[in-house]
From TrEMBL:
<dbReference type="InterPro" id="IPR038538">
    <property type="entry name" value="MTERF_sf"/>
</dbReference>
<comment type="similarity">
    <text>Belongs to the mTERF family.</text>
</comment>
<dbReference type="Pfam" id="PF02536">
    <property type="entry name" value="mTERF"/>
</dbReference>
<keyword id="KW-0806">Transcription termination</keyword>
<keyword id="KW-0804">Transcription</keyword>
<dbReference type="InterPro" id="IPR003690">
    <property type="entry name" value="MTERF"/>
</dbReference>
<keyword id="KW-0809">Transit peptide</keyword>
<dbReference type="GO" id="GO:0006353">
    <property type="term" value="P:DNA-templated transcription termination"/>
</dbReference>
<dbReference type="GO" id="GO:0003676">
    <property type="term" value="F:nucleic acid binding"/>
</dbReference>
<dbReference type="GO" id="GO:0005737">
    <property type="term" value="C:cytoplasm"/>
</dbReference>
<protein>
    <recommendedName>
        <fullName>Transcription termination factor 3, mitochondrial</fullName>
    </recommendedName>
</protein>
<keyword id="KW-0805">Transcription regulation</keyword>
Amino acid sequence: MGSLILHGRRLCEFQRLRNLRFAVNPFQNATAFSSSSSWSARDGQKDHTFTVSYLVDSLGFTTKLAQSISRKVSFEDKRSPDSVLDLLKSHGFTDSQISDVITVYPQLLVADAEKSLAPKLQFLQSRGASTSELAEIVSTVPKILGKKGGNTISRYYDFVKEVIE
């Protein structure tokens, strides 16, 4: 029983550590790691603030929703999220559908639009999905874009399309 409690305590500690977010520059020298922890806290707060303001300004989210989403994903600049939003718009997604996708699956905002998302959208279109069907399916089940491998995406797409029809 004692080992279960110890294991449970370690699990709680791991879960707390897992929720910490900070960026490490691999080109920094070792002295950067000996600086106070307030640096990473300030840096994390800056990213959090930027993410919230981006979500409010770009997607029209309420501050409360943007703060909730920023606990799941954060970014330092708008380059990656802008490229993801542009890609979705170029594939016929409406602003409302994009908001739905990001609300459910905010991790898409930090995905590589050209190397990761574009091939998946093209693959789904090659399966016969029209632009409107593609937007409907992805906005209904955004995590389909998080799936890896053509077979997995294909099976997931077939299932979702069948349910929607």
